[in-house]
Amino acid sequence: MSLIICQEGEVYPIKKITGNDETKKFLNSLGFVVGEEVSIISKNGDNMIVNIKDSRIALGRSMASRIMI
Fold first, then answer.
1. How many Å apart are CA 64 and CA 43, to the nearest integer?
2. In whole angstroms, what is the distance from residue 20 CA to residue 63 CA?
3. Which of the residues 4, 19, 35, 46 could staple to 66 if both were Cys, CB 3.0 to 4.6 A apart?
């Protein structure tokens, strides 16, 4: 299941990152790695703010859809 359909306030472990190598490397540099926990702070239309490794990061729908939980 993709991060875009998750509920706000819940904590989810990352199981897989999809996409091309460049996308995977970019998400990895932001802290999105398999096994790490991510939670959704807020959703606003196609954008969301997530908390990972004590950092808040804004993601668009296309990037969030590549993070599988």
1. 11
2. 12
3. 19
User: Is there a contact between 47 and 61 (Cβ–Cβ < 8 Å)?
Assistant: yes
Residue 47 zone, left/alpha/beta (φ > 0; ψ -120 to 50; rest)? beta
Pair 39, 25: CB distance under 8 Å: no
Return the sign of the alpha-carbon dihedral for residues 54, 68, 25, 34: positive
Backbone angles phi, psi at 18, to 5 degrees: -105, 170
